[in-house]
Write a structure and sequence with these properties.
This protein is α+β, with helices and mostly antiparallel strands and 97 residues long. The protein is built from four helices and four strands; from the N terminus they run E-H-E-E-H-H-H-E. The two termini are 15 Å apart.
Length: 97
């Protein structure tokens, strides 16, 4: 899953807390792996600029659905929501599958 992220003022720290808790509690239960996370100057056409990009691997779409519906995940979604002014989540598949 490709995540394009735009933070609110102070959102980067809130998002980091959400990510830390997700890695510790949620990710191990649902087989979630962070492939890459980073920010800086992202090259793009004129228009929206993103603060960060995050690439996350899930075992399958069903695992993603179970994760977001789970109570342990719902307990930290407020951190993510408060951290972001905008986000794009784009499901992807490796080429050749």
């Amino acid at each position: 899953m490709l995540n394009l992220l735009r933070f609110t003022g102070g959102g980067r720290a809130r998002y980091a807390e959400c990510a830390r808790r997700a890695r510790e509690v949620v990710a191990p239960r649902y087989g979630v792996t962070t492939v890459y996370g980073g920010g800086g100057a992202l090259v793009a056409e004129s228009g929206p600029q993103w603060d960060a990009v995050l690439l996350v691997a899930y075992p399958d779409r069903a695992a993603f659905g179970r994760m977001v519906a789970a109570p342990d995940c719902r307990q930290i979604t407020h951190l993510r929501a408060g951290a972001l002014s905008e986000a794009v989540l784009q499901p992807t598949r490796p080429w050749g599958r």
